[in-house]
Structures are given as C-alpha cells and as structure tokens.
C-alpha cells in the first residue's frame, strides 16, 4: 500500500509543471511576429512565412500599439499612473481622498464580504484591490459603493489564532442566505486628476455574491459611454443599460427574461458573452434552447449571428469594422464538451468551422484577427499546438506536448464513455480512469470523483475566472489520476442539470440546487459501465468530492445507500437554506421558496455506508455551520461516521492540504481496497 501512496503522491495537481511540457503555449505578439516560452529559451514565429527562430530567454520588447490591447486595456495601463486605494471605506488617489462619507459596511471601491471571501483571501496572501475600470482616456474610472449594513452576518470562530494565545477569535462577515435582505450597489465615475464625481442615475441595485464590476458586467465603450449588464434577483432577467459618463444618465437598452435562469454566457460564474460598439450590441441568449449570439441595433433585433443545435462557448476575437467574429463552440464535434474554433459574420450567414480535428480546441487569436493559435487534444493524445491562418489552414506546427514524464510517473490516459441517463433516453458523457498497471482480469473498486453542481461541468477543460479546470491531465478539481494510482477505477462525469449541453439539459436541475437528477444519472451510468466492463466491482463503490462535490457525496450515501458504500465529503454546501443566496435563489428560485426541502438532515437515518466529513473551521464559503448541522443530524440518528475539522482552514486546506489528502486516501483505501 505504501507504493500505491507514493505513486498517487506523484500525480497530485501540483506536480503538473514538473511532469508536462508544452501542453499549451502563451504567445506574446510583437509587430509582425510573436514568441512563446520553451524550456531554456523561447521561439519566435513569423506568421507570414511560418519561419521559426529559437532565441535565448529574455524580457520581451513591447512597442507602443504592438501588444494588441483593447481600448479598455489601454485605459487600465494609462490609469496605472494613478494609485487608487481604499482606506476606512473611502477612496484615495495618490493619497488624496476622493470621498469622505464611506464607512465599514457601506464602503467605496470594495466588493461585498461574500464576494471577497476575505478569510480565504488573507490565507492565500491576496490583497483585495479596489474594484474599478479605467476609461480609455486613462484619467477617469468607474467604481462602486456597496451597502451591506443591513445584510445578516456570519460568525466564524478561529480556535487557534496564528499569533498564539489561549483565547479563540471571532470573525464576523456579512453573508446573505436565500431570502435575506441583499446587499446593494451604486456606481459612480471619478476623474482621478480633479476628483470630479458623476453618479450613475440608477437606484441601488441588489446583487448576490458579486457586483457587476467584479464579474465583467460593467465596461467602457469609448471615453464617454459605459455599459452595465445587470442580472435581477434569482437571475430571472438580464438588463443592459447604456450610461452617459458625462452626466450619469442611464438608459435601458435591452432586457430578456426567463422562467428559469436568464444566463448571459454559458456559465453563471464567468464573464458574460455580451459586447457593445456604438449603437450595436452582440447579445447572448438561450431563447432557442441553445446559447447563441444575436445582433441588436438601437435596442432592436437585427439578426442572429449564430444558430443551430450547438452553443457558443467563448468569444475569441471581435472585429466590428470587418464584421467578423471568431469564437469557440460546443457541440460541433463528436463529444459535446469539445470546443471547435469558428468564424461568423456579424450580419448573419453561414458559420465556418476553422478546426476540423475531432478534439477539444483552445484558441488564441492575434490582435489583428489574421492568425489563430490552436491547441487541440483528446484525453488519450498529447496536445498539439498549430498556427492557422484566417481560413483555418495550418501554417506550421508550433509545439507538441511531452507527456513522457507524466506517463513514467504512472499516469494513464482516461477513457471517454457515453451512457444513458436515468431517464433511459438522454446521453451522458464521462471519463474513466484506470490504474497504470490495469489488468482486465482483475476486479477494481469504483470511485465516483463527483461535482454535480449546476454551475460547472466536471469533465470539461475550461478556465473559470482565471482558474484552470482540466480533468484530463492531473485534474485539479478532483485528483482522479491520483485516486486511480491508489488502485481505483475512477469515474468523472456530468449528469443532467449541468452546463454546456443546451437549455433543456441544464434546466433539469432547476428547482433542485442539489442536482438530484444528475446524481441519479451517475448511478445509472456507473451501472452501465459495470455491465460492459466486468472488472468494475459494483460491490465496492465509493464517492468523493469537495464543496458542491462534498454535498453530492453525502447525498449519494444517504439517497442511494445500497449503491454507494464509502464516501469522503469535503467542505460541502449541505443545507441550501444556509448557503449563498446566489446559489439557492438562482437554481431554486427567488423567495418565497422552501429551501429546506432538499435538506440532508432528514435523511441522516439512511446512512449505512462509511462516511468521512471534512471541513475547515474558517470556511467563509461553505461555512462550518452546514457541516455541523449534518453532523448533528447523524448523531441524532445514531449513525457512525468520521469527522475531521481543520483548524484555521478556509475553503481550501492550505497548510494541511497534504494531511487532509492522506486522510482521504487512507479512508477510501481502508474501506474499499483493504476490506474488499
């Protein structure tokens, strides 16, 4: 068993930089060429000829106008000559106060407590910079004032303060739960040079978790125009406002509503796919059942830019003058989670798929839109990065991932599978990880590495707010390769109620933030896999997950006690009436709702398997109260379980990460491998 633990430790996500080379590249454009880093230096490429030149590593030489910045980015660069800070709830520029009436709980420039997750930020050594966006003139900026004084608070107890001392410390933060009064936000524009202030003429807007500025929903279009994309409570409507930055006058240009959720992009948790230019708006909507882009002029519908039974996943390049759009789609390939890179005209017409390979494609477009750097891969093949021209033709291969060290460490590429959902009709997809020394004549316990929250897809290779989610290699979300190295057959999949599969698939979880329908699909798919693969042992089925995955783990053992035998539930959002308002109100509906209807407490008596519950005492996301409510219910039901509370830990375990990981592995191994 010690050998298995060593192999697993070699495949944790933090090892990926040492084990993988050139899985993708980051181009730096300079004039008519670009360069990217390689071990020991960098490679410069001249797209017109395809010529490649190896250079020693060094600082890039960036000339003005050669970096491909947008007007907004240039504004931010120019704005760096002014130092904007927040002190005691007020804004300062270069040490000069711009405001004097800010107070704690009603401060300028800061997010809400819930949006900032301040305890986790402090533990990660992160500052909370002012939330603002510079105008292209580099002198004015738009910022916000959040009022959370009326929002109920959450108190966390720090039993062992890092400075020592015998007395625990209490930390109190504003934390809105479903049905609570929500924080509000107002916006204002400041001239950093003169201090002149213009207030946006809108009433205080309620929000949950993140302000519009915090998630890319407030932006400049020229020096005098701002656009604000606002989602109403429960995400029932999306409203687009055009704001005159000179006067603060705000005009509602567009609004779209939904009976379930009105998304402005494929993921609730990422930046929207809405763009503006003069009187034109590129608008994202799922009105046909699939996420597509539509062009509006002066608030009136002009044409569909994309359409079909597939969806737009990302906007990669938009040229209003050339009337061209380059984007990533989902659903054009053999696997619905794979992206293809496509081109479309803004005025309508055919969509051209630029990347024919049946694989997942990650695209990066040159600033002038003439060149595409395309990295594509499947779970079983090393990524290949090529340079393509505007038609999609390959100019030259740039890089090919080297996975030799990864394979030598014991990694085995996952196998894709397709199964039927619990309804017997809908296709669901996933990945199956097997140990490197896999023997089809042997029997393997199964571990479902689960995250079935309705806001993310577990198996897709994506980036959310800068954080990569890549289950194919070392899987930072669930450590599937490490679990396989322990000797498990590991399943990573997405059931109904999750994104990237169209509106009907997503809406299957509406009214059920626990995504129970998706959990039923996990059970159905694993049964089908075992029927086709006799080496999968249905008498030894485990499940493990973190956050939404932790809640899914506990629910799996309590609702399917004859199927799931062992589970490790980490930092779960077990009680949705006690969790973020943005979660329950979006996926179950705004008040009045019975958020306690999906409580796990009433199911505690169903526990027959082995359950381990792990949480941090300072978790300001899935706060300890939710874990302790479940623990209390299990005690009252006289159910046996194990618990690990990590002192000082927030939603991640930081200093205790390796310890927690070892305890998880030992628990699964003890009850699925050794007892089996």
From TrEMBL:
Residues 50-73 are annotated as: Disordered. Residues 50-64 have a biased composition (Basic and acidic residues). This is Prolyl oligopeptidase family serine peptidase. It holds the Pfam family Peptidase_S9. Transmembrane segments: none annotated. It comes from Nonomuraea typhae. Residues 482-672 form the Peptidase S9 prolyl oligopeptidase catalytic domain. Residues 132-382 form the Dipeptidylpeptidase IV N-terminal domain.
